[in-house]
Amino acid sequence: PKKEREDAPRIAEVALERIKSTLRYRKEYDVLAFHAPGMARKLMYHDTNPGACMYLADAGIVDKKDQPVLVGRLGLMMAEDAEQHEPIVPANHLRAVMFVFERLASSLRLAHGHR
Fold first, then answer.
1. By three-state DSSP, how is residue 36 classified?
2. Model confidence over 60-85: pLDDT tens digits?
3. What separation, in Å, do the N-terminal and C-terminal C-alpha atoms of the chain show?
């Protein structure tokens, strides 16, 4: 219909901006580096990424499309008033989570024959 044809350029424009934004984000955070040998050790160990902890787990279940479900915790480690052995560094948590999502997405693409 006519309304859809009129909206098509705007929809395409918004979609293109989302793609560009995603590419900028991936470049800024150097997500391709997440695939370098030893990166898991670098991002997950406290001696190389102080204050980072991973609070994601494979739930051992799949969704309706047979994709794995990760369970994550929204809070960062402990309550603010809890005694802890080292300071929490939110940016390091975020980088570790981004690593897990990137590697998971890549693994799923490869498992389904995509490059």
1. coil
2. 888 998 888 888 765 555 555 555 55
3. 36
* Cα dihedral across residues 85, 90, 95, 100: positive or negative: positive
DSSP 38-78: THHHHHHSTTTSTT----EEEEEEE-TTS-EEEEE-SS-SS
Burial class (CB in 10 A: 0-12, 13-18, 19+), 31: middle
Provide the 8-state DSSP code for 85.
S
- Name residue 25's amino acid: Y
Is 0.70 surpassed by the pTM of this model?
no
